[in-house]
Design goal:
The protein is built from six helices and no strands. The protein is mostly helical. Bound molecules: fe (ii) ion.
Length: about 190
C-alpha cells in the first residue's frame, strides 16, 4: 500500500454533506438545462415562420449557450467530488421541464414554451441559490452567472414573442400568458 500517495479526499473547506447536497441540486439543473438545449435545438430545425431567419438564429444562440452551460455545471459537480449524470435517461428522469415529442407548434408557441421553461429554470436557480451560497460561494457564483444570462435570454424570447404575436392572431385566443399552458396541452 502506498502511504505517500495522494488520496481522493476532497478538502476544499466545504463539508461533505454540503458538497453532496449541492451536487444533487446541480445534477437537477444539469438535466434540466440539457433538456432545454434539446428543445431549443429542435425548434431551430423545425421552425416555420415569416420570421424564419430571426428565429432560426435565436434558437441557435440558445442551444449553443446551453450546450456550453451544461459542461460548466457538470464540471462543477466533478470539482465537488461527485459524478455528473450524463445519459438521456438520467436527464429525462431528473429534469424539471418536459420535452414535447412530435410537437412542432407555430412560432408563437415555440417562443412561449421556451420562455416558460427558461423562467422555470430561473425560479429554481434562485431558490437553490439561497441555500447553496451559505455553504459554497463558488457554486453560488456559478448560479448567479447563469441566472443573469438566462434572464437576458428570457428578455430576448419575450421580445420576439411580442413581435410574432401579431402573426398569430388567427390562432384562437392566443396570449403570451396562456401560450405555455396551451403548448403543454398540445403534447
Ligand atoms: Fe443549424
Amino acid at each position: 500500500m502506498c502511504m505517500e500517495c495522494p488520496t481522493n479526499t476532497i478538502n476544499i473547506g466545504v463539508a461533505d454533506k454540503d458538497r453532496n447536497d449541492i451536487a444533487k441540486k446541480l445534477s437537477v439543473l444539469l438535466a434540466t438545462d440539457y433538456m432545454f438545449f434539446t428543445k431549443a435545438y429542435k425548434y431551430h430545425w423545425n421552425v416555420r415562420s415569416p420570421f424564419f431567419s430571426q428565429l432560426h438564429a435565436l434558437f441557435e444562440t440558445l442551444y449553443e449557450a446551453h450546450f456550453a452551460s451544461v459542461d460548466e455545471i457538470a464540471e462543477r459537480i466533478r470539482t465537488l467530488g461527485h459524478e455528473a449524470p450524463g445519459t438521456l435517461a438520467e436527464f429525462i428522469e431528473q429534469s424539471i421541464i418536459e420535452e414535447t415529442p412530435g410537437f412542432n407548434p407555430s412560432e408563437c408557441f415555440m417562443l412561449a414554451e421556451l420562455l416558460g421553461d427558461l423562467e422555470t429554470i430561473i425560479q429554481q436557480m434562485r431558490k437553490d441559490l439561497s441555500t447553496i451560497e451559505k455553504s459554497d460561494i463558488i457554486s453560488g457564483d456559478l448560479l448567479v452567472g447563469k441566472i443573469k444570462a438566462y434572464e437576458k435570454e428570457a428578455w430576448f424570447l419575450r421580445s420576439h414573442l411580442e413581435i410574432v404575436e401579431d402573426e398569430c392572431e388567427d390562432e384562437e385566443e392566443f396570449s403570451i400568458e396562456e401560450a405555455p399552458k396551451k403548448a403543454s396541452k398540445k403534447k
